[in-house]
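Can you give me the bound-state structure? Components:
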Amino acid sequence: MMMASNIRPEPPAKTGERLLDVKGLTIEIETRTGPATIVDGIDLHVDKGETLGIVGESGCGKSLTMLSMMRLLPNKIKVTKGEANFAGRDLQKMSNSDLRKVRGGDVGFIFQDPMTSLNPVMRIGQQLAEPLIYHRGMSKAEARKRAGELLKLVGIPGAEDRLDAYPHELSGGMRQRVMIAIGLACNPQLLIADEPTTALDVTIQAQIVDLVKDLRDKLGMSVVWITHDLALIAGLVDRINVLYAGTVVEDAPVDALFANPSHPYTQGLLASIPKLSDERSTRLSSIGGTPPEPGRRPKGCPFAPRCPLAEAICHERVPSLEGLGQDGAHRVACFVAQRKLEAA
Amino acid sequence: MSVVPMPGTAAEIEPPVSLWRDAWHRLRRNKLAVFGLVVVVILAFTALFGPYLTPYDFLSQDLNSRNLAPSLSHLFGTDDLGRDVFSRVVYGTRTAFLVAIVVTFIAVVIGVTLGALAGFFGGWLDRIVMWLTDMTMSIPNLLLVVVINASLKSPITSWMESRYLATLNPVYRETIWVDFLLVFGSMALISWPPYARLVRAQVLSIRSRPYITAAQALGLTNRIILMRYVVPNALGPLIVAVSAGLGTAMVLESAFSFLGVGVNPPTPSWGNMISDGLRVWQHYPHLLAAPAAVLGLASVAFSFLGDGLNDALNPRGAK
Ligand SMILES: Nc1ncnc2c1ncn2[C@@H]1O[C@H](COP(=O)(O)OP(=O)(O)OP(=O)(O)O)[C@@H](O)[C@H]1O
Ligand code: SF4
Ligand SMILES: [Mg+2]
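Here's the bound-state model for the whole set.
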């Protein structure tokens, strides 16, 4: 049996070893007019010890991609193609009982809305203890002790006294900390944070980001952080994937992305970050139009109808994600950007 | 161990109050609900201990004092056989509670099980349960009870009588419990569908809440999620429904006994007392008034309590 506090002593160096590898994942929704594609053959990967930021407009499929990997999709939404490998095993093909061990045990989730993602009639301490008892085989007393440590770890004042509180007795920021503690309970190798700060106000947002950064360095896990807000995570992530209409349109190390945003959509995203961000960033004000609805995707580049640089070919063919420069670490799915670089 | 500066404002540090205690505070502020609760408690106490405290036996007849008006020695007067009406009403309370509790218990067990399974697993299970529910609800209650009683009661009683005559085994002598068994059975049979519907709807709505996805993302099993996440969250509305349902079951028992398909004389039931009283109410109004008033009081009390519980338990859900 594991000890009550089995925090890994040293953060593993970034080895370049794939922890999560999603290939060609396609998600469809059942509609009255037949199936409609929401996520179209998405590819993403996260290395051991790496932190990946996923950015994109509301509705572009960020949450569904994460949920689908863990087979947590709602009823009418299904994965129709592709694989999601975690530590070399395809989560899509795994048995239910194996998958349950991965969920919560190896992969921790933090959800968008701390107000509704906690069970309102269960005490905080019990909600924290649940995965410990289930995944780590702890006794109730051990789990409670560890739950207290976890609350302390995420900076909740009077942690031990809080174990018996119900969620509605905590503020939004405190609840989000509890969610993080639950996500971290079993020392996951991967933490998936789905817009964990959207429901919180700006100062708390920054605190939560710092908290996760701190914990990541201490516990040495990989993190996927989903957000609308590029500026918020600039200091946290190693690499960013920009999502548009269910595909990755740009994949770049964080510095390269800010220094040299190559996809017109990314450029629009960056342009819409207010310089002095004391208020929530106005989302994508500089890009006109709206993303395509599921089932009404354009034939060529999904961004073409809104793209200021669109050419004839953009309406005909879908650009693939190609590496720019020598090492190919910066990849973009845009004909114009790719041509520019070849010419240079 | 704490590595992060903690932003604790005073507002975030308040003493923990349990959800149920919260609800209790709200309930106490509701005058009608408190009235309902007090009446229900008194009636329950009467049902439990009343028969030991009443001055007369509910069966003992005193043919010298028939149809007496209420007085100090007979609080509610006496009936046409000279039996003490107060004692009979008290015993009727016991009958009403016994029937209401047993019937509601059976109905809730059936309803919650079927409703929770249907809502949680959906698919063919859901379709079968919903079909059963609709079918049961489409049969008129009264008709079903009359049919069950008419078709089962006399065969069972006469079979028992013949067994008794043949064997003289005392087990077969008492036929009163056949009454109760049939009443329990037939009333439970018609009472479970509303619980099944309520729980199914609750579970369907709870199933799509983010905390269920969060629980699944923790790798918890369906059984744990159903027992610890879904059912407790559906409990508030269920408690409300049970409180109202107990009142309904009492009224239903009285109605059936009134019509002669429920509990039969000499076992006292408010319903068969009302039925007896109705025949002579112009001459002896107390024979009708006493059981009718208590039945009305019980019905009102349970419905006030149910409404109060609804208000007390809901603010949390609305928030
Ligand atoms: N339960 C559902 N039923 C029907 N459609 C859904 C459901 N959940 C998501 N969708 C649709 O799928 C698409 C992708 O949704 P998803 O939640 O992944 O977006 P997102 O990128 O996470 O957006 P947000 O930033 O608002 O969280 C959206 O167009 C949305 O309308
Ligand atoms: S491929 Fe064409 S339409 Fe698509 S982003 Fe590039 S330029 Fe715009
Ligand atoms: Mg989302």
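A couple of observations. Chain A has eleven helices and twelve strands. The pocket of magnesium ion (ligand 3) is lined by residues A 62-63, 112, 194-195 (CB under 6 Å).
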